[in-house]
């Protein structure tokens, strides 16, 4: 799929582009997938301010030859024609090499504001790297170890009792599994399958809790924050690979104002990772709040449209500020 330019959007999109005005910027939005609600909403907020916006995917990033050598391109156009690129790119285990290579191309474009560059993106996508960086910044995270064998898993169960296994690179709860009743035959088979699939896993103690908090931070301010009402079998916000026949995943999402403590944790975690904006997942335990994850591509597309407009506009503000640092609008 090639990038969607302004003329196409004027002709085909329900989100109408406005003609660029004096002092406008050229913005590229690298979306997670075609039609992603958050990217479309941010684009609309930026066009309402008179900015020119191109939506594109990882497959649209390439290299072109010029008299001066090789240059990065976006949908066939030299990347330095853009003022800023906002990256909401998906980096997963299945596309790691290709995604990192293409993001590296863009991140090395002189004069292009990249939100955020490849190094910042990658160290957040990797949960091992993320947890280490948060620890170094004095932010409380779960005790974490890497496991490669069933013997490693058994040692973790002996130490913590109830555990969670997950891949270091993953999203939406896929292959995130809890083990709360020891390691019977079924549990061993499940753990062994995960080890075969990934080779190495993150292992953490399971914290019994009701409710997961997502603190959305944009710039250095908390934006829309949510609480996922998790409990019982629906113990994580998203079911991951799907549900068994007849199963249900009843998790209600509540929009709420964060406490001062939650807002501070979210801001500190976002700053520690060097991100322009992030979704910080926090669980309240008996010993206090614990940061479970920092999401480099936070989502809010499941929220009501009027609520979605709040982060859309806040990200537009952020992009304008960062672009202005390089070139006055």
From TrEMBL:
User: Domain ATP-grasp: where?
Assistant: 131-324
Query: Does Lipid biosynthesis appear among the keywords?
Result: no
| Record key words, sorted | ATP-binding, Nucleotide-binding
- PROSITE patterns for the chain: ATP_GRASP
Q: Which residues form the signal peptide?
A: none
Q: Which Pfam families match?
A: RimK
Q: Would the keyword ATP-binding turn up in this protein's UniProt record?
A: yes
List the Gene Ontology MF annotations in alphabetical order.
Answer: ATP binding; metal ion binding; ribosomal S6-glutamic acid ligase activity
Chain ranges passing through the membrane: none
Q: Which GO terms describe its cellular component?
A: cytoplasm
Look up the domain of life of the source: Bacteria
GO biological process annotations for this chain's record? SOS response
What is the recorded name of this protein?
Answer: ATP-grasp domain-containing protein
